[in-house]
Amino acid sequence: MSGPEVPIWWDEPADAFTNMAADEILAAEADRRGGLVVRLYGWSPTSVSLGAFQEIAAARGLEAIADVPLVRRPSGGGALVHGTDLTYAAAVPRRHPWGQSAQAFYDAFHAALVAELRDRGVAARQHQATSEAAVPPEPLLCFDRRAVGDVVVARPGAAAAADDPKIMGSAQRRLAGVILQHGSLLLRANAAVGPAARHVGLLDLHPAAGREESRLVEAWLGRVAGACGAVAVRQATGFRAGRGSEIAAHAARFQDAGWIARR
């Protein structure tokens, strides 16, 4: 199979500030290459990433995450508890078809995951808008929210229900010439945080879906790349390899107390 390539970098878990810095550099790489780029990674230790426009007081006031390291993402959306999830960062130039529509970029990743999970016997779907006239204030945590296109799965042996668990959501930020998208695929509940910030994950509900977890992810991203007429190519090294000094320079901004508490 041939065609344009989508580079996929898999990185080892890193601290919150390193991860945000690497993603900022990834966005510049998308602009340089002129197409979609993707980085996959974990977090160590367990951390919380706050959406770019969220109030820090709400996070500081949630006892369940009081002792957890906090970073502010450049992307929007709700706060995420990391450590038992697989996080992806994807970026495209604004001239890319997915750079023209926020929903199209979301759906490219979410619909591909739904299709792959269904092929593995999991009743997954994308959340649809409700007809409610009044919209209540959004919860702090991403996995307490439901946005159009979020990936939800039915509980084992049960029919689809309005309160089915959400297992993946994404958020974006428009940067100079580039769209950066973050997404979190929740694999397991995180015991390092209190119950109020703990959510059930895909493999808690459907452990068989995660047999050979890397193959699930590779198949999912293969579908993403195929949706834009390209081929996903796993890179031989992680994205952070050889970029240590550049990442450290960018990480300093994310560590700055002024950036974290800017809202």
Describe this structure in words.
By secondary structure, the chain is of the alpha/beta class. It has a single domain, classed as 2-Layer Sandwich (BirA Bifunctional Protein, domain 2), CATH 3.30.930.10. Helix content is 29%, strand content 22%. It contains seven helices and eleven strands. The strands form two sheets. Strands 7-8-9-10-6-2-1-11 form an eight-stranded mixed β-sheet, sandwiched between helices. A three-stranded mixed β-sheet has the order 4-3-5, with helices on one face. Helix 1 packs across helix 6 and helix 3 crosses helix 5. The radius of gyration is 18 Å and the shape is globular.
Distinctive features:
263 residues; alpha/beta; BirA Bifunctional Protein, domain 2; eight-stranded mixed β-sheet; three-stranded mixed β-sheet; 11 strands
- The largest sheet has its strands arranged as 7-8-9-10-6-2-1-11
What is the helical fraction, as a range of percent? 25-40%
Q: Please state the CA-atom Rg, rounded to the nearest Å.
A: 18 Å
Beta-strand percentage?
15-25%
Main sheet specs = 8 strands, mixed
What is the overall pLDDT average?
Answer: 94
Write the layout of secondary structure elements.
Layout: E1 5-10, H1 16-33, E2 37-41, E3 47-50, H2 56-60, E4 70-72, E5 80-82, E6 85-93, H3 102-119, E7 124-126, E8 151-153, E9 166-175, E10 178-186, H4 202-205, H5 213-227, E11 231-234, H6 244-255, H7 257-260
Parallel strand pairs: 1-2, 1-11, 3-4
Antiparallel strand pairs: 2-6, 3-5, 6-10, 7-8, 8-9, 9-10
Helix pairs in contact: 1-6, 3-5
